[in-house]
Amino acid sequence: MRVVISAGGTGGHIYPALAIVNKIKEMEPNSEFLYIGTHNRMEKDIVPKYNIPFKSIEIYGFNRKNILKNFKTLKCLITSRIKCKKIIKEFNPNIVIGVGGYVTVPVILAAHALKIKTFIHEQNSVAGKANLSLANKVDLIGISFKSSINEFPKEKTIFTGNPCSESAIKQPPIDKAKFNLSKSKKLVLIVMGSLGSSNVNKFLVNSMNLFNDKNYEILYVTGNNDYEEISKNKFPKNIKVVPYIDNLSGMLKNTDIMVTRAGASTLSEIIALKIPSILIPSPYVPNNHQYKNAMDLVNKNAALIIEEKNLKDDILVEKIDELINNDKKINEIKKNLDSFRTTNSATIIYENIKKMLGRK
After folding, report:
1. Which of 6, 32, 182, 285 is deepest in the core (most CB within 10 A)?
2. Domain segments of the chain as ranges
């Protein structure tokens, strides 16, 4: 299979795209790939590390605050579509896949103009503008949350789950000893994303002394940006502080409770591994989609939530204590996570693409 794939801007788009690539490679080892991404976002650094050929285009999202900047955006959209058409023609793929982010718009439009089969995937419960704008142009749409089925044409929309979930299940567990953690004590993993969150980190630093003498341990992942400053603080012995964990899924397999944002990829791992969680959605994302992602779980008693604006006093330690010592509640959450769980998301995507291409 020859595949052009595009996704950009955040890990929430890029890592599901890579999970799809890995599944196709697994099923058809002779497949060839070309990744089209932006010239100045995360994918330009991440994707080449996986030995996937990478082509960049200059493209920007629309700016609501500065309308004048949108003239450049429109110009880039036109020129990047022309460039994508040339790139796709030369590569001659069987399928072009978009996994979110504004970079996918010129890529999918170019493929549609060339009459090449297209598939897009939506990770969030609220569809992104790029995917909504492409819905009528593509051949097949995959969604991660059943609640977003009404946002797309039903006749070509399938529930796949998030392809990162299948990757998470396959990851080997990380031994707690790697972080000097006790095997006998319960573990709370606090992660605010690869870059962290300065606002939440300030609250957490001020709250850490409240966890002194608890019967559980905390592994606090600060994010690379804030680690140096945060690590200067003195924390209780039951708290370990690290900047980043490369194999987060592996660490989750030895985690009792996770405290985290509500990005789509993180939730896919929580769901796949059935990890009780306390979600602190980022209020700084488009369409407040992290809050809506979180509420999909919260409304079915599959997670707890604290909005960032409510992070005060001892609210976090209260929530953790309320959950970690309540086996009945933990088992109820794990059971309810099953209603969201798809253990073979990437396989479902692969099989549907193969069917769309008329392959047996």
Report:
1. 6
2. 2-162+342-356, 169-340
d(CA 357, CA 359): 6
Beta strands at 186-191 and 157-159: parallel, antiparallel or unpaired: unpaired
pLDDT value at residue 77 = 87
Q: Classify the phi-psi angles of 69: left when phi > 0, otherwise alpha if psi is within -120 to 50, otherwise beta.
A: alpha
- Whether 161 contacts 348, CB under 8 Å: yes
301 contact partners, CB below 8 Å, separation of at least 6 = 332, 333, 336
The CATH fold assigned to 169-340 is: Rossmann fold (3.40.50)
CA distance 29 to 126: 34
Do 116 and 23 contact (CB within 8 A), yes or no?
A: no
Q: What are the average pLDDT values for consecutive 10-residue runs of the chain, which has 360 residues?
A: 94 93 97 95 91 93 70 85 97 97 96 98 93 96 93 96 92 95 96 73 92 95 89 94 91 97 93 97 89 96 96 95 95 95 94 91
Given the candidates 3.40.50.2000, 3.40.50.10330, 3.40.50.1220, 3.40.50.2300, the CATH classification of the domain at 2-162+342-356 is 3.40.50.2000
Nearest to 122 by CA among 101, 95, 93: 101
Residue type present at position 340: F
